[in-house]
User: What shape does this take?
Amino acid sequence: MKVKVRELFFSYPNFTLKVKDLNFESSKITSIVGPNGAGKSTFLKCLCMINTGWKGAVLINGEDLYGMKGSKRAQIIGYVPQEQNLIFNFSIIDFVLMGRTPYLNLLSKPSKKDLEMAEEALKFVGIKDYKGRGILELSSGERRLVLIARTIVQEPEILLMDEPTSFLDPKHEIEIMELIKSLSAKMGKTVILTLHNLDLAIKYSDNLVFMKEGDIVGSGRTQEVLSEEILEKVYDIKMKIVEINGHRVILR
Amino acid sequence: MNGKSNKRIKIGFLLIIILPVLVSIISLLIGSYPISFKDVLKTFLSIFSSAGLKEIPEVYRDIILKIRLPRIILALTVGASLSVSGASLQALFRNPLVNEYILGISSGAAFGASLSIVFFGKGFPVELASFIFAFIAFYSVLFIAKGTGSDVISLLLTGVIVTAFFTSLLTMVEFLANPYSLQSLFFWLMGSFSLAGWKEVLYSLPFMFIGMTFLFLYRWKMNVLSLGDEEAKALGLNVKLEKLLIMIATTIATSSAISATGIIGWVGLIIPHISRMIFGVDNRKVIPASAFIGATFLLLADDFSRGITSFEIPVGIFTSIIGIPFFIYFLKKSGKLWA
Amino acid sequence: MRFLKLFLIFSFLFSSITFSNEIEIKDELGRVVKIKENVERIISLQPEITRIIVAIGCGGKLVGKDYFVHKHDHIFYSIFPEGKTLPLVSRSGADINLEFIIKLNPDIIFVSPTDSWMVDKIEKYSKIPVLALSSMGSFEKLKEEMKLMGVITRKSERVSELINYFESKIKFLEGRVSVEEKKPRVYLSFWSSLIRTPVHYEPVNIAGGINVAEGLSPSYEGTVGTVVSIEKIIKWNPDIILIHGNYPPEERTITVESVLSDKRLGSLGAIKKKKVYYTFGFWFWWDPAEVLFETVYLSKLFHPSRFSDIDIVKEGKEIFKKFYNESRTFELLFKRLKCNEWKIK
Assistant: This one.
């Protein structure tokens, strides 16, 4: 699914997001990186219509996002938030089942097939013992996995994830990124992430988008766009790119 | 608590469906006029066959079919209506302390109904004015609390303010009312089923059912909405619209209940909690469960209010006596409420 | 010697002027209040008391009026036109202008026992004696009230005259009624509700009827009403149902027609025989002339054969003339409540 962004313009007090011309490659992983307040999350939320009232065009395979019906959009675009403020202790399986909402109308309720999909998704992300447990009882890492499972059952072509590795320890960081990689490689999903961790971004992304203060500073294939100049421009400090064992690493 | 076995849930549901039926039968026996169980049964069955019609004294038929039966039906429906509304509001606002009273709906409805009783007379349907002002009050709370972040404190505070406002408007109505309307108004405000007849049932039942049906159909979406606005949007819901529709439905359900019987408090707060404690937080179960448990609860409360003493205690007093300790208990247990 | 005589006369006069006796009264809220024996400035927030004061000719001692006689009393300005110039000291049942009342410097304030909060409020901020008095549906208490008014306004003679008149009329009615063996059982639907009824309403008793709710406990202290249920009414199966008729016809929701057509009451004998009538009932307690008239009216209603010679309208005019020195007011009341539709012959 190709995602094209043209003349996206979104402002609120003290901040303006401007994306002139940006394409997201189909079935690839694109990471949006940049300092705090660059507008990465804001951009992501515009792409899944959590933020509305922006100007411009976002075309999904040629179709305008803005005019799309909510349920249809949710069948195409899935969103994994960074933080959640959960109040009710839903069972894990019920929580994942909520991902099927875009396919349910008012009179239909989740069916057996939906249930099977939910169970499959949980298996895929590696959550084994979910029976009898509630969403509030999970660790943040497990909860992140369950969220991804929920997004999987939406069967979206495009996955948006806001800081999927935040609050996770290194082991779980890698786990999540590997999972995301397989989502793109095995399931062919177009994945758009925001990431704080530059090293992870470099290691796992096919494409990078650099943002600063609401603007796109640079974008392209990871190997091509990454440079010490662009890093200094975006982060306002000098950094060095070093190659170790074939991997490029950032030294501050 | 969450992986409740299916079997347990099925048994639970069976119980809560049978319970109101049982209590209804018992309620038919309660009242100042002594009628034996056999006679109650005969009278009830005479609805369906005119065969035994002549045997049964006219007074039995009047009491069972024109006094007790409509009252029972009204109590059941109001109990269900208030409970389902309460559960829906708690999902909508993602907060278990929310209920129709705190959000100003009750006082708005009461004001609307009193305005109608005092100034518009018998011709004008009380339910309409009740609904309009209930909605205005509800909307005001949301509108005022919006800027402050709609966390529970600001919501409660705003609710208190709006409730106070409509209560003072109500006082103004009392002030301007002639003595006749004033008397009937005071009586109505106490919240009771003592004058419930088929007329009250027929006027308010359809609205309560409309409201409840809508909320029932929306129970899955309520689950999603209770995740929070952002996630609900991401899952494809038109959050603004859905919330508005649920608001309207709960207001219809609540205001029609209030316009029939006056203000009966606490039901919308405690019944959903009991439902969740038994069945978990999934609204697919909580909504219907609240309806049945709420119906039983209010019917029992009404039975107490007319059965215990020779004079009738307004049923709202019973729901307060039971509701307030519950409320305090829940307040203390706040963290683990939805487990 | 002459000097001594003068001295004795002066000291006697002097003592009777400066020594006011105090009376101790226990009011309907159980409070014991000391009041002066001679009062000049009265505020009555209890319309029944106000009426008595006017009837005994002491309307001039009133220094303020309450909202009820101003706004809701059908006949107050007819029996006491001067009342129009009296200042208003309350605007609703829930509000008294206490500052203003204190400023008017009354010697005594009368309130209704149903407004105990008024007593608390007045006592909190002033030392003016407050009495919560009402007939509570009883003629004994009504007469006691009248006697008290007579004492404190020094109009005992006039009061005796009225009480004698009252008692003789009652005696007359009782005399004719006592012959009757069968007393009709009566249910009173008061205060705009089918299920609110007074636990004591003496006119019914004097007229030879039995109040089915007699003896029940009132809803709370200071009131005479209680709330029953429709089933209770059916259980009682009264012979006659009386409806509170002191409300003007256009304001009534409980009407003879609505009761006769109430499907729940269909089994009652009173409904079947159409023995549902209006009576006056309390209008924030009683007007002594009106309640006396009501007793005559009810006597004839319950026992028509015994009172076939009584012309109700004539009786009413006579009673009101006795109390208020004119009968125009009676006609006014009669017209306002459309009593001609009450089947009074």
